[in-house]
Amino acid sequence: MDRIPTRMALSRRRLNVGDSSCTLCGIGDEDVMHLFTGCVFSFGVWSIVGQWCNIIPIMAFDFKDLLRIHESVTGGKWAKKVIRGIVMVTCWAIWKSRNDKVFRGTTPKVAEVVAMVKSCSFLC
Q1: How many domains are there within the chain?
Q2: Can you give the pTM of this predicted structure?
Q3: DSSP 54
Q4: Does any domain span residue 5?
Q5: CA–CA separation, 10 vs 80, rounded Å?
Q6: Class of residue 56 by CB neighbours under 10 A (exposed 0-12, middle 13-18, buried 19+)
């Protein structure tokens, strides 16, 4: 719905953001699809999270694909809910690490984001 304030979304709203390249990888334009599915950094996070959850490799070409990952999980209703929650936590962790880099000047690491996903997933 283009509500997440990525650099491209802000630019479309006529806000001067300067460079529109991805904050995390610097390769593509930072929009929702790139940030959560096309970014090299995010791909690293999704790969490790998928291994941790013991599910098929997470391949998402669109943000909506991420929201449907739980549908392909074998197991009962509870397993699907757990994976759906982990996907939401992972999206939040990627967004948080992006914001920490933009506003605090930190250098996010894939392992740190995955550790945040794991710890937050256990708390939920």
Answers
A1: 1
A2: 0.88
A3: T
A4: no
A5: 34
A6: exposed
